[in-house]
Amino acid sequence: MDSFILYDGSTEWKNLRPITLTRPISEIRLGILTIRERWEKYFGGKAFVLTKPYLSKKYGMEKNTTTVKDVFKNILLINSSFIPNEELISIIYKLKEDEAIFFKEKMVAVRRSHYRYRIDPPYLKKYKKIYHINQVIYIQYPWDIFIKNEIVLKQDFSFLTKGKNSFSLFGKNNLLFKEKIFLEEDIIAENIVLNAKLGPIYLERGVQIMEGSMIRGPVAICKKSTLNMGTKVYGSTTIGPFCKVGGEIINSVIFSYSNKAHDGFLGNTILGEWCNLGAGTNISNLRNDYSKVTVWNYEKKDFFPIEVQFFGLIMGDYSKSSVNTQFNTATIVGINANIFGYGFPPRYIPSFTLGGIQERKVISFKKVCETAERMMKRRNVPFSLSDKEILEYLYNSMYE
To answer: What is the 3-state secondary structure (H, E, C) of the chain?
Structure first.
């Protein structure tokens, strides 16, 4: 398949905030890959991304097309919130013009004879034929990312390692159930324990694991990330590319270039890109009364109950906590928040704010850009014009 379009469903994109404030749904990481990377590997083709206008310059089809006259012919449109599996892929290859796939009442994919992007919606009111799929992973809310991470990670492991041989790990290390451990090249490790009894372990190229670290699968550590000395990583966890982690982590997904480099507990948590947790930061992932949690809703601007018991923190891109910050169960942090102060911070912290339990202040946009540029420069990554424009759009829409 040469090309296809991954589009953001409006309802899903809104429900996935704050993670989607700075990215399309297709750039969400879970398992080993991002959603876009996974679809591209299944199809062996290039994905075009249809997302919010303010995100399009960095992520969308505007990178590849230039005028409203651009027309895609015989194009496949896929809802980005769905994770591909073998059954879904096999049905997609059967699709003919104006035929669609549904999961319950939600459209998964449709093939169109032509599609004029920026004008046509990615759906049809009538279909020549509808296929139904009963088993597929559907990401609707941020907490779905850590809840479903184990299933996707195991699926990715089988898909990515099929017919491939693992590299060897040199040094004095203890590898248990080696048949479920896959190593890419240039892994640096000494005196570590990898235990894949409960699930596979996948280490991408250039990962460094310092002495005394222990990993119990299913776990994925993505390229060039570092585990500091004595790190403990439990199952259902993904550490994205270029991260630095330490302490104790369980059932969490950390996106690229984020740091939790020191001791402290992180559980049932999603960290966006360019986040940093200060030394001693801890996240509660279970209420003292063992009850289900309430969580902030961006549409209703209030907390509402969900059927989830273990829930730590959802933190948007560029946000940070100071040393010894203690996050309460089911806390939502927006983008570019700077959290410090005594006591537990509020369970909802808006984007671009400074402080904690005491009165919070809005950070100036100049300071937002200076901090982002400074942090990214430390990793030799430029703070691009498109990065700035995304933040400026969000800042103006929230605080104009």
So the answer is: CCEEEEECCHHHHHHCCCHHHHCCHHHCEECCEEHHHHHHHHHCCEEEEECCHHHHHHHCHHHCCCCCCCEEEEEEEEECCEECCHHHHHHHCCCCCCEEEEECCEEEEEEEEEEECCCCCCCCCCCCEEEECCCCEECCCHHHHHHCHHHHHHHHHHHHHCCCCCCCCCCCCEEECHHHEEECCCCEECCCEEECCCCCEEECCCCEECCCCEEECCEEECCCCEECCCCEECCCEEECCCCEECCEEECCEECCCCEECCCCEEECCEECCCCEECCCCEECCCCCCCCCCEEEECCCCEEEECCCCCCCEEECCCCEECCCCEECCCEEECCCCEECCCCCCCCEECCCEEECCCCCEECCHHHHHHHHHHHHHCCCCCCCHHHHHHHHHHHHHHHC
Gap between the Cα atoms of 288 and 285, Å rounded: 10
- The CATH class, in words, for 3-140 is alpha beta
Do 205 and 185 contact (CB within 8 A), yes or no? yes
**CATH class of residue range 146-399:** mainly beta
* Domain range summary for the chain, segments of one domain joined by +: 3-140, 146-399
User: What are the tens digits of pLDDT across the range 185-226?
Assistant: 999 999 999 999 999 999 999 999 999 999 999 999 999 999
Structure tokens at 377: 């420069």
Q: Are 101 and 123 in contact (CB under 8 A)?
A: no
Q: CA-CA distance, 273 to 18, in Å (whole number)? A: 12
| 136/78 Cα distance (integer angstroms) | 13
Cis? peptide before 350, omega within 30° of 0: no
Q: How far apart are CA 43 and CA 351, in angstroms?
A: 37
Read off the pLDDT of residues 325-364 as tens digits, 9 standing for 90 and up. Answer: 999 999 999 999 999 987 889 999 999 999 876 677 999 9
Please tell me the distance from the alpha carbon of residue 365 to that of residue 389, in angstroms, as a whole number: 11
